[in-house]
Amino acid sequence: MSSLKETIAKVYANYVVKKTAKWSNNPIKTQEKVMKKLISRAKNTKFGKDHDFKNILNYSDFSKNIPVRDYEDIKPYVQQIIDGENNVLWPKKPIYFAKTSGTTSGEKYIPITKDSMPFHVKGSVDATMHYIVETNNTKFLNKKIIFVQGSPVLGSVNGIKTGRLSGIVAHYTPAFLRKNTMPSWEVNCIEDWEKKIETISTETLNEDMAAIGGIPPWVVMYFDKLLSLSKKKTISEIFPSFSLFVYGGVNFSPYKNVFKKLIGKEIDSIEYYPASEGFFAYQDSQKKEGLLIQLNSGIFYEFIELSEMQKPFPIRISIKDVELNKNYVLIVSTNAGLWGYNTGDTIAFVSLKPCRIIVTGRHKHFISAFGEHVIGGEVEKALKEATDQTGISVKEFTVAPMINPEKGLPFHQWWIEFDGNPSIKEIELTAKKTDSTLREINSYYSDLIEGKVLRPLMIISVQKGGFKNYMEAEGKLGGQNKLPRLSNDRGIVDKLSLFSKRMN
Fold first, then answer.
1. Residue 271 buriedness (CB in 10 A; 0-12 / 13-18 / 19+)
2. How far is residue 145's CA from residue 150's CA, in Å, rounded to a whole number?
Protein backbone atom coordinates (compact mmCIF):
# COMPACT_ATOMS: atom_id res chain seq x y z
CA MET A 1 0.00 0.00 0.00
CA SER A 2 1.32 3.44 -0.95
CA SER A 3 2.21 5.95 1.74
CA LEU A 4 0.77 9.48 1.79
CA LYS A 5 4.11 10.78 0.44
CA GLU A 6 3.95 8.33 -2.49
CA THR A 7 0.33 9.24 -3.28
CA ILE A 8 1.07 12.98 -3.28
CA ALA A 9 4.19 12.40 -5.40
CA LYS A 10 2.17 10.51 -8.03
CA VAL A 11 -0.44 13.28 -8.25
CA TYR A 12 2.23 15.96 -8.57
CA ALA A 13 4.19 13.86 -11.06
CA ASN A 14 1.22 13.62 -13.41
CA TYR A 15 0.76 17.39 -13.16
CA VAL A 16 4.45 18.01 -14.04
CA VAL A 17 4.38 15.65 -17.02
CA LYS A 18 1.26 17.28 -18.49
CA LYS A 19 2.68 20.77 -17.99
CA THR A 20 6.00 19.76 -19.57
CA ALA A 21 4.22 18.33 -22.62
CA LYS A 22 2.61 21.72 -23.36
CA TRP A 23 5.88 23.59 -23.86
CA SER A 24 8.01 20.67 -25.12
CA ASN A 25 5.62 20.05 -28.02
CA ASN A 26 5.90 23.72 -29.02
CA PRO A 27 9.67 24.28 -28.97
CA ILE A 28 9.90 27.26 -31.37
CA LYS A 29 7.09 29.25 -29.76
CA THR A 30 8.42 28.45 -26.27
CA GLN A 31 11.92 29.70 -27.09
CA GLU A 32 10.61 32.88 -28.78
CA LYS A 33 8.75 33.73 -25.56
CA VAL A 34 11.87 33.09 -23.46
CA MET A 35 14.04 35.29 -25.70
CA LYS A 36 11.61 38.21 -25.56
CA LYS A 37 11.22 37.93 -21.80
CA LEU A 38 14.99 37.87 -21.24
CA ILE A 39 15.50 40.96 -23.40
CA SER A 40 12.61 42.79 -21.74
CA ARG A 41 13.88 42.06 -18.20
CA ALA A 42 17.49 43.06 -18.94
CA LYS A 43 17.04 46.07 -21.29
CA ASN A 44 17.90 48.57 -18.55
CA THR A 45 20.99 46.75 -17.28
CA LYS A 46 24.51 47.90 -18.10
CA PHE A 47 24.84 45.03 -20.59
CA GLY A 48 21.40 45.73 -22.06
CA LYS A 49 22.25 49.37 -22.71
CA ASP A 50 25.68 48.47 -24.13
CA HIS A 51 24.02 46.11 -26.63
CA ASP A 52 20.92 48.16 -27.51
CA PHE A 53 18.40 45.69 -26.08
CA LYS A 54 15.54 48.17 -26.55
CA ASN A 55 15.82 47.72 -30.33
CA ILE A 56 15.98 43.91 -30.33
CA LEU A 57 12.67 42.76 -31.77
CA ASN A 58 13.46 39.32 -33.18
CA TYR A 59 16.14 36.64 -33.36
CA SER A 60 17.90 38.36 -36.24
CA ASP A 61 18.34 41.47 -34.07
CA PHE A 62 19.37 39.32 -31.13
CA SER A 63 22.18 37.55 -33.00
CA LYS A 64 23.44 40.85 -34.49
CA ASN A 65 23.50 42.75 -31.21
CA ILE A 66 24.80 40.02 -28.90
CA PRO A 67 28.08 38.41 -29.94
CA VAL A 68 29.08 34.93 -28.84
CA ARG A 69 31.31 35.18 -25.79
CA ASP A 70 33.63 33.04 -23.69
CA TYR A 71 34.14 33.72 -19.99
CA GLU A 72 37.09 36.02 -20.69
CA ASP A 73 34.75 38.27 -22.67
CA ILE A 74 32.20 38.64 -19.88
CA LYS A 75 34.81 38.83 -17.12
CA PRO A 76 34.85 42.68 -17.09
CA TYR A 77 31.10 42.69 -16.43
CA VAL A 78 31.49 40.06 -13.68
CA GLN A 79 34.23 42.18 -12.13
CA GLN A 80 31.86 45.15 -12.01
CA ILE A 81 29.42 42.99 -10.01
CA ILE A 82 32.22 41.87 -7.68
CA ASP A 83 33.13 45.55 -7.22
CA GLY A 84 29.63 46.18 -5.92
CA GLU A 85 27.68 47.49 -8.93
CA ASN A 86 23.98 46.72 -9.45
CA ASN A 87 22.09 45.94 -12.67
CA VAL A 88 25.13 44.87 -14.64
CA LEU A 89 24.19 41.64 -16.45
CA TRP A 90 20.75 41.16 -14.89
CA PRO A 91 18.53 43.34 -12.68
CA LYS A 92 19.96 43.77 -9.17
CA LYS A 93 22.83 41.54 -8.00
CA PRO A 94 23.26 37.75 -8.22
CA ILE A 95 22.45 35.82 -5.05
CA TYR A 96 25.37 33.44 -5.69
CA PHE A 97 28.50 32.99 -7.74
CA ALA A 98 29.06 29.39 -8.81
CA LYS A 99 32.83 29.01 -8.72
CA THR A 100 34.31 26.77 -11.39
CA SER A 101 37.82 26.10 -12.62
CA GLY A 102 38.64 27.12 -16.18
CA THR A 103 41.47 25.96 -18.39
CA THR A 104 42.45 29.45 -19.58
CA SER A 105 40.67 31.78 -17.20
CA GLY A 106 41.63 30.27 -13.88
CA GLU A 107 38.66 30.41 -11.51
CA LYS A 108 35.38 31.49 -13.07
CA TYR A 109 32.56 33.18 -11.21
CA ILE A 110 29.27 32.30 -12.88
CA PRO A 111 26.32 34.36 -11.60
CA ILE A 112 23.20 32.70 -10.21
CA THR A 113 20.24 35.02 -9.67
CA LYS A 114 16.98 34.94 -7.77
CA ASP A 115 15.31 34.19 -11.12
CA SER A 116 17.65 31.39 -12.22
CA MET A 117 18.17 29.54 -8.93
CA PRO A 118 14.77 27.77 -8.80
CA PHE A 119 15.41 26.11 -12.16
CA HIS A 120 18.62 24.44 -10.90
CA VAL A 121 16.38 22.54 -8.47
CA LYS A 122 13.26 22.23 -10.62
CA GLY A 123 15.10 20.28 -13.33
CA SER A 124 16.09 17.44 -11.00
CA VAL A 125 12.62 17.34 -9.39
CA ASP A 126 10.86 17.27 -12.78
CA ALA A 127 13.16 14.48 -13.98
CA THR A 128 12.18 12.43 -10.93
CA MET A 129 8.49 13.11 -11.57
CA HIS A 130 8.78 11.86 -15.16
CA TYR A 131 10.47 8.73 -13.85
CA ILE A 132 7.65 8.13 -11.35
CA VAL A 133 4.93 8.49 -14.02
CA GLU A 134 6.68 6.12 -16.41
CA THR A 135 7.76 3.43 -13.93
CA ASN A 136 5.26 3.86 -11.07
CA ASN A 137 8.23 3.38 -8.72
CA THR A 138 7.82 5.56 -5.63
CA LYS A 139 9.22 3.19 -3.01
CA PHE A 140 12.57 5.04 -2.89
CA LEU A 141 10.78 8.13 -1.51
CA ASN A 142 10.26 6.38 1.85
CA LYS A 143 13.81 5.09 2.13
CA LYS A 144 17.23 6.66 2.39
CA ILE A 145 18.70 8.68 -0.47
CA ILE A 146 22.24 9.94 -0.84
CA PHE A 147 23.85 12.53 -3.09
CA VAL A 148 27.64 12.21 -3.29
CA GLN A 149 28.44 15.88 -3.87
CA GLY A 150 30.71 18.79 -3.05
CA SER A 151 30.73 20.64 0.26
CA PRO A 152 27.81 23.05 0.89
CA VAL A 153 30.10 25.40 2.82
CA LEU A 154 30.00 28.72 0.98
CA GLY A 155 32.45 31.56 0.81
CA SER A 156 31.70 35.20 -0.01
CA VAL A 157 32.85 37.72 -2.60
CA ASN A 158 31.89 41.25 -1.56
CA GLY A 159 28.71 40.01 0.09
CA ILE A 160 27.72 37.51 -2.63
CA LYS A 161 27.79 33.87 -1.49
CA THR A 162 30.17 31.73 -3.49
CA GLY A 163 30.76 27.98 -3.86
CA ARG A 164 30.58 24.97 -6.15
CA LEU A 165 27.24 24.44 -7.84
CA SER A 166 26.55 21.12 -6.09
CA GLY A 167 27.27 22.80 -2.75
CA ILE A 168 24.88 25.66 -3.52
CA VAL A 169 22.12 23.30 -4.68
CA ALA A 170 22.55 21.26 -1.47
CA HIS A 171 20.91 24.20 0.35
CA TYR A 172 17.76 23.67 -1.72
CA THR A 173 17.00 19.97 -1.16
CA PRO A 174 13.23 19.62 -1.71
CA ALA A 175 11.21 19.33 1.50
CA PHE A 176 9.76 15.94 0.55
CA LEU A 177 13.28 14.48 0.37
CA ARG A 178 14.96 16.38 3.21
CA LYS A 179 14.19 13.93 6.05
CA ASN A 180 15.56 10.85 4.31
CA THR A 181 18.47 12.45 2.44
CA MET A 182 22.04 11.62 3.41
CA PRO A 183 24.82 12.29 4.30
CA SER A 184 24.32 14.42 7.39
CA TRP A 185 25.05 18.11 7.02
CA GLU A 186 28.22 17.85 9.10
CA VAL A 187 29.60 15.03 6.98
CA ASN A 188 28.65 16.79 3.75
CA CYS A 189 30.72 19.77 4.87
CA ILE A 190 33.96 17.76 4.99
CA GLU A 191 36.31 19.28 2.40
CA ASP A 192 38.90 16.48 2.16
CA TRP A 193 37.39 14.14 -0.43
CA GLU A 194 38.96 10.85 0.70
CA LYS A 195 38.02 11.56 4.32
CA LYS A 196 34.54 12.52 3.19
CA ILE A 197 34.03 9.28 1.24
CA GLU A 198 35.24 7.21 4.18
CA THR A 199 32.95 9.06 6.62
CA ILE A 200 29.96 8.84 4.26
CA SER A 201 30.56 5.13 3.82
CA THR A 202 30.67 4.55 7.59
CA GLU A 203 27.56 6.68 8.13
CA THR A 204 25.48 4.95 5.44
CA LEU A 205 26.74 1.36 5.72
CA ASN A 206 23.83 0.16 7.84
CA GLU A 207 21.13 2.30 6.22
CA ASP A 208 18.51 1.18 3.72
CA MET A 209 19.69 3.22 0.72
CA ALA A 210 17.26 3.15 -2.21
CA ALA A 211 18.54 5.95 -4.46
CA ILE A 212 22.10 7.18 -4.93
CA GLY A 213 23.23 10.20 -6.94
CA GLY A 214 26.52 11.69 -8.03
CA ILE A 215 29.16 11.86 -10.75
CA PRO A 216 29.99 8.22 -11.69
CA PRO A 217 33.75 8.09 -10.94
CA TRP A 218 33.22 9.50 -7.44
CA VAL A 219 30.30 7.16 -6.77
CA VAL A 220 32.61 4.28 -7.76
CA MET A 221 34.99 5.48 -5.01
CA TYR A 222 32.06 5.39 -2.57
CA PHE A 223 31.08 1.87 -3.67
CA ASP A 224 34.67 0.62 -3.38
CA LYS A 225 34.89 1.95 0.16
CA LEU A 226 31.54 0.38 1.12
CA LEU A 227 32.62 -3.01 -0.17
CA SER A 228 35.94 -2.72 1.65
CA LEU A 229 34.24 -1.87 4.96
CA SER A 230 31.44 -4.42 4.69
CA LYS A 231 33.44 -7.31 3.18
CA LYS A 232 30.44 -7.88 0.90
CA LYS A 233 30.77 -8.74 -2.78
CA THR A 234 28.15 -6.37 -4.21
CA ILE A 235 26.40 -3.12 -3.32
CA SER A 236 22.98 -4.80 -3.58
CA GLU A 237 24.01 -7.06 -0.68
CA ILE A 238 24.64 -3.92 1.40
CA PHE A 239 21.60 -2.00 0.11
CA PRO A 240 18.91 -4.52 -0.99
CA SER A 241 16.48 -1.66 -1.74
CA PHE A 242 18.88 0.18 -4.05
CA SER A 243 16.90 0.66 -7.27
CA LEU A 244 17.75 4.08 -8.72
CA PHE A 245 21.01 5.80 -9.69
CA VAL A 246 20.94 9.51 -10.54
CA TYR A 247 23.91 11.10 -12.28
CA GLY A 248 25.06 13.98 -14.40
CA GLY A 249 28.15 15.66 -15.72
CA VAL A 250 29.64 12.72 -17.63
CA ASN A 251 28.50 10.04 -20.03
CA PHE A 252 27.51 6.96 -18.06
CA SER A 253 28.18 4.48 -20.88
CA PRO A 254 31.89 3.85 -20.13
CA TYR A 255 31.02 3.11 -16.50
CA LYS A 256 28.01 0.87 -17.15
CA ASN A 257 29.84 -2.47 -16.92
CA VAL A 258 31.77 -1.55 -13.78
CA PHE A 259 28.57 -0.29 -12.10
CA LYS A 260 26.72 -3.48 -12.99
CA LYS A 261 29.56 -5.53 -11.50
CA LEU A 262 29.76 -3.42 -8.34
CA ILE A 263 25.99 -3.31 -7.78
CA GLY A 264 25.40 -6.92 -8.74
CA LYS A 265 22.23 -6.26 -10.74
CA GLU A 266 20.69 -3.94 -13.30
CA ILE A 267 18.95 -0.88 -11.86
CA ASP A 268 17.18 2.17 -13.27
CA SER A 269 19.06 5.41 -13.78
CA ILE A 270 18.16 9.05 -14.45
CA GLU A 271 20.60 11.34 -16.24
CA TYR A 272 20.77 15.08 -15.61
CA TYR A 273 22.60 17.75 -17.60
CA PRO A 274 23.39 20.36 -14.97
CA ALA A 275 25.95 23.13 -15.28
CA SER A 276 26.86 26.26 -13.38
CA GLU A 277 25.36 28.20 -16.30
CA GLY A 278 21.99 26.46 -15.97
CA PHE A 279 20.14 23.15 -15.74
CA PHE A 280 20.03 22.34 -19.45
CA ALA A 281 18.33 18.97 -19.82
CA TYR A 282 17.22 15.77 -18.12
CA GLN A 283 16.23 12.23 -19.02
CA ASP A 284 12.45 12.24 -19.24
CA SER A 285 12.04 8.61 -20.32
CA GLN A 286 13.59 5.23 -19.57
CA LYS A 287 12.54 4.06 -23.03
CA LYS A 288 13.56 6.92 -25.34
CA GLU A 289 17.03 8.10 -26.22
CA GLY A 290 18.29 11.48 -25.16
CA LEU A 291 17.66 14.23 -22.62
CA LEU A 292 14.76 16.67 -22.79
CA ILE A 293 16.30 20.11 -23.31
CA GLN A 294 14.78 22.68 -20.95
CA LEU A 295 13.31 25.24 -23.32
CA ASN A 296 11.03 26.83 -20.73
CA SER A 297 13.48 27.46 -17.88
CA GLY A 298 14.71 30.99 -18.48
CA ILE A 299 17.40 29.94 -20.97
CA PHE A 300 17.52 30.89 -24.64
CA TYR A 301 19.58 28.42 -26.64
CA GLU A 302 21.65 28.91 -29.76
CA PHE A 303 23.69 26.39 -31.66
CA ILE A 304 26.82 26.52 -33.82
CA GLU A 305 27.81 23.54 -35.92
CA LEU A 306 31.14 22.17 -34.73
CA SER A 307 32.65 22.59 -38.21
CA GLU A 308 31.72 26.30 -38.14
CA MET A 309 33.77 27.00 -35.01
CA GLN A 310 36.97 27.21 -37.03
CA LYS A 311 35.59 30.13 -39.06
CA PRO A 312 36.01 33.82 -38.09
CA PHE A 313 32.23 34.37 -38.14
CA PRO A 314 30.51 31.05 -37.43
CA ILE A 315 26.82 30.77 -38.28
CA ARG A 316 24.60 30.52 -35.20
CA ILE A 317 21.04 29.24 -35.26
CA SER A 318 18.07 28.97 -32.92
CA ILE A 319 16.00 25.91 -32.08
CA LYS A 320 13.94 26.64 -35.22
CA ASP A 321 16.73 25.50 -37.57
CA VAL A 322 18.46 22.63 -35.78
CA GLU A 323 18.80 19.24 -37.48
CA LEU A 324 19.10 15.71 -36.19
CA ASN A 325 22.48 14.07 -35.55
CA LYS A 326 24.66 17.12 -36.11
CA ASN A 327 27.26 18.18 -33.56
CA TYR A 328 26.51 21.66 -32.23
CA VAL A 329 28.37 23.84 -29.76
CA LEU A 330 25.84 24.96 -27.14
CA ILE A 331 25.42 28.74 -26.70
CA VAL A 332 23.14 30.12 -23.95
CA SER A 333 21.59 33.37 -22.80
CA THR A 334 20.04 33.11 -19.36
CA ASN A 335 18.06 34.76 -16.58
CA ALA A 336 21.31 34.72 -14.61
CA GLY A 337 22.74 37.33 -16.98
CA LEU A 338 24.81 35.26 -19.38
CA TRP A 339 24.47 36.48 -22.97
CA GLY A 340 25.58 34.54 -26.05
CA TYR A 341 27.70 32.47 -23.69
CA ASN A 342 29.73 29.62 -25.16
CA THR A 343 29.35 26.71 -22.74
CA GLY A 344 32.07 24.74 -24.52
CA ASP A 345 29.79 21.69 -24.62
CA THR A 346 28.87 19.91 -27.83
CA ILE A 347 25.46 18.30 -28.23
CA ALA A 348 23.45 16.52 -30.91
CA PHE A 349 19.68 16.30 -31.34
CA VAL A 350 18.12 12.84 -31.41
CA SER A 351 14.53 14.12 -31.47
CA LEU A 352 13.00 17.43 -32.58
CA LYS A 353 9.50 17.23 -31.11
CA PRO A 354 10.04 17.12 -28.26
CA CYS A 355 13.65 18.29 -28.47
CA ARG A 356 15.94 15.67 -26.97
CA ILE A 357 19.70 15.86 -27.05
CA ILE A 358 22.77 13.84 -26.20
CA VAL A 359 25.96 15.44 -24.91
CA THR A 360 28.76 14.54 -27.30
CA GLY A 361 31.70 16.17 -25.55
CA ARG A 362 33.56 19.42 -25.07
CA HIS A 363 34.44 21.75 -27.93
CA LYS A 364 37.96 22.19 -26.60
CA HIS A 365 38.41 18.51 -25.69
CA PHE A 366 39.29 16.73 -28.91
CA ILE A 367 42.13 15.14 -30.81
CA SER A 368 43.01 16.63 -34.15
CA ALA A 369 46.78 16.34 -34.11
CA PHE A 370 46.60 14.97 -37.66
CA GLY A 371 43.32 16.51 -38.87
CA GLU A 372 41.05 13.72 -37.56
CA HIS A 373 39.01 15.85 -35.08
CA VAL A 374 37.92 12.98 -32.86
CA ILE A 375 35.51 14.13 -30.13
CA GLY A 376 34.47 12.82 -26.73
CA GLY A 377 31.22 11.18 -27.81
CA GLU A 378 33.10 9.18 -30.44
CA VAL A 379 35.72 7.73 -28.10
CA GLU A 380 33.07 6.90 -25.51
CA LYS A 381 30.93 5.10 -28.08
CA ALA A 382 33.89 3.20 -29.52
CA LEU A 383 35.09 1.99 -26.11
CA LYS A 384 31.57 1.04 -24.99
CA GLU A 385 30.97 -1.10 -28.06
CA ALA A 386 34.35 -2.78 -27.63
CA THR A 387 33.92 -3.54 -23.93
CA ASP A 388 30.36 -4.75 -24.51
CA GLN A 389 31.88 -7.36 -26.81
CA THR A 390 34.88 -8.29 -24.66
CA GLY A 391 33.10 -8.09 -21.28
CA ILE A 392 35.88 -5.94 -19.79
CA SER A 393 34.90 -3.21 -17.30
CA VAL A 394 36.49 0.25 -17.41
CA LYS A 395 36.82 2.48 -14.34
CA GLU A 396 38.35 5.52 -16.03
CA PHE A 397 40.14 6.53 -19.21
CA THR A 398 41.61 9.37 -21.24
CA VAL A 399 43.07 9.60 -24.75
CA ALA A 400 46.01 11.59 -26.13
CA PRO A 401 48.05 11.60 -29.37
CA MET A 402 51.49 10.01 -29.52
CA ILE A 403 53.00 12.25 -32.18
CA ASN A 404 56.67 11.27 -31.98
CA PRO A 405 56.97 7.61 -30.96
CA GLU A 406 60.43 6.06 -30.61
CA LYS A 407 59.69 3.99 -33.70
CA GLY A 408 56.90 3.46 -36.18
CA LEU A 409 53.95 5.63 -37.11
CA PRO A 410 52.18 8.00 -34.69
CA PHE A 411 49.01 6.76 -32.96
CA HIS A 412 46.30 7.53 -30.45
CA GLN A 413 47.25 6.39 -26.98
CA TRP A 414 44.42 5.28 -24.68
CA TRP A 415 45.19 5.29 -20.97
CA ILE A 416 42.66 3.02 -19.26
CA GLU A 417 42.17 1.90 -15.67
CA PHE A 418 40.34 -1.42 -15.85
CA ASP A 419 38.23 -3.00 -13.18
CA GLY A 420 39.95 -6.28 -12.40
CA ASN A 421 42.98 -7.62 -14.23
CA PRO A 422 42.27 -8.36 -17.88
CA SER A 423 44.91 -10.35 -19.73
CA ILE A 424 47.19 -8.81 -22.35
CA LYS A 425 45.23 -10.75 -24.97
CA GLU A 426 41.91 -9.27 -23.72
CA ILE A 427 43.40 -5.76 -23.74
CA GLU A 428 44.73 -6.22 -27.27
CA LEU A 429 41.32 -7.45 -28.44
CA THR A 430 39.65 -4.44 -26.79
CA ALA A 431 42.11 -2.13 -28.56
CA LYS A 432 41.42 -3.79 -31.91
CA LYS A 433 37.64 -3.56 -31.55
CA THR A 434 37.80 0.03 -30.24
CA ASP A 435 39.93 1.08 -33.21
CA SER A 436 37.60 -0.65 -35.65
CA THR A 437 34.52 1.10 -34.23
CA LEU A 438 36.25 4.48 -34.14
CA ARG A 439 37.12 4.09 -37.82
CA GLU A 440 33.46 3.40 -38.58
CA ILE A 441 32.37 6.48 -36.64
CA ASN A 442 35.03 8.93 -37.84
CA SER A 443 35.94 8.80 -41.55
CA TYR A 444 38.85 11.23 -41.12
CA TYR A 445 40.47 8.91 -38.58
CA SER A 446 39.86 5.94 -40.86
CA ASP A 447 41.45 7.74 -43.81
CA LEU A 448 44.57 8.46 -41.76
CA ILE A 449 44.88 4.78 -40.80
CA GLU A 450 44.39 3.64 -44.40
CA GLY A 451 46.79 6.29 -45.66
CA LYS A 452 49.50 5.09 -43.27
CA VAL A 453 49.61 8.43 -41.50
CA LEU A 454 48.55 6.78 -38.24
CA ARG A 455 48.73 3.23 -36.97
CA PRO A 456 45.89 1.70 -34.93
CA LEU A 457 45.40 2.92 -31.38
CA MET A 458 47.31 1.50 -28.44
CA ILE A 459 46.04 0.92 -24.87
CA ILE A 460 48.13 1.68 -21.80
CA SER A 461 46.73 -0.19 -18.81
CA VAL A 462 46.92 2.05 -15.75
CA GLN A 463 47.41 0.60 -12.30
CA LYS A 464 44.56 0.79 -9.79
CA GLY A 465 44.19 4.27 -8.31
CA GLY A 466 46.32 5.93 -11.00
CA PHE A 467 43.63 8.38 -12.09
CA LYS A 468 42.65 9.13 -8.51
CA ASN A 469 46.27 9.95 -7.70
CA TYR A 470 46.48 12.26 -10.70
CA MET A 471 43.23 14.09 -9.87
CA GLU A 472 44.29 14.46 -6.24
CA ALA A 473 47.63 15.95 -7.28
CA GLU A 474 45.79 18.41 -9.52
CA GLY A 475 43.49 19.42 -6.66
CA LYS A 476 40.49 18.04 -8.52
CA LEU A 477 39.52 15.00 -6.46
CA GLY A 478 35.77 14.62 -6.03
CA GLY A 479 32.86 17.02 -6.25
CA GLN A 480 32.02 18.31 -9.74
CA ASN A 481 35.48 17.68 -11.15
CA LYS A 482 35.64 15.51 -14.24
CA LEU A 483 38.55 14.04 -16.14
CA PRO A 484 38.66 15.13 -19.81
CA ARG A 485 38.11 12.14 -22.07
CA LEU A 486 40.64 13.33 -24.61
CA SER A 487 43.19 16.05 -25.29
CA ASN A 488 45.00 17.37 -28.33
CA ASP A 489 48.29 17.28 -26.45
CA ARG A 490 50.00 15.11 -23.84
CA GLY A 491 49.60 17.44 -20.89
CA ILE A 492 47.31 15.10 -18.94
CA VAL A 493 48.93 11.75 -19.76
CA ASP A 494 52.45 13.02 -19.12
CA LYS A 495 51.38 14.09 -15.63
CA LEU A 496 49.36 10.91 -15.23
CA SER A 497 52.45 8.82 -15.88
CA LEU A 498 54.06 10.36 -12.78
CA PHE A 499 51.33 8.97 -10.55
CA SER A 500 50.67 5.66 -12.18
CA LYS A 501 52.87 2.79 -13.18
CA ARG A 502 51.98 1.37 -16.57
CA MET A 503 50.82 -2.21 -16.42
CA ASN A 504 51.93 -3.02 -19.97
1. buried
2. 16
Backbone angles phi, psi at 360, to 5 degrees: -100, -10
**C-alpha to C-alpha distance for 354 and 348, rounded to whole angstroms:** 14
Q: Which of 401, 392, 402, 455 is nearest to 424 (CA)?
A: 392
The pLDDT of 440-466, averaged and rounded, is 88
Strands 244-248 and 268-275: parallel
Residues 6 or more apart whose CB falls under 8 angstroms from that of 414 comprise 379, 383, 397, 398, 399, 431, 434, 457, 458, 459, 460
| Length in residues, the chain | 504
Q: Are 340 and 42 in contact (CB under 8 A)?
A: no
Secondary-structure breakdown of the chain: helix, strand, coil percentages, each rounded to the nearest 5:
40, 25, 35
Q: How many other CB atoms sit within 10 Å of the CB of residue 27? A: 21
Quote the pTM value. Answer: 0.83
E strands, 220-327, where?
244-248, 268-275, 278-282, 291-293, 299-305, 316-317
Q: Cα separation of 482 and 63, whole Å?
A: 32
Largest Cα separation within the chain, whole Å, is 69
Rounded CA separation 22/250 (Å): 29
What does the pLDDT look like over 389-420, one tens digit per residue?
Answer: 988 889 899 998 888 888 888 899 999 999 88
The single-letter DSSP state of residue 294 is -
Q: Which domains can be identified in the chain, with CATH numbers?
A: 118-275 (3.40.50), 366-499 (3.30.300.30)
Tell me, what DSSP letter sits at residue 141? G
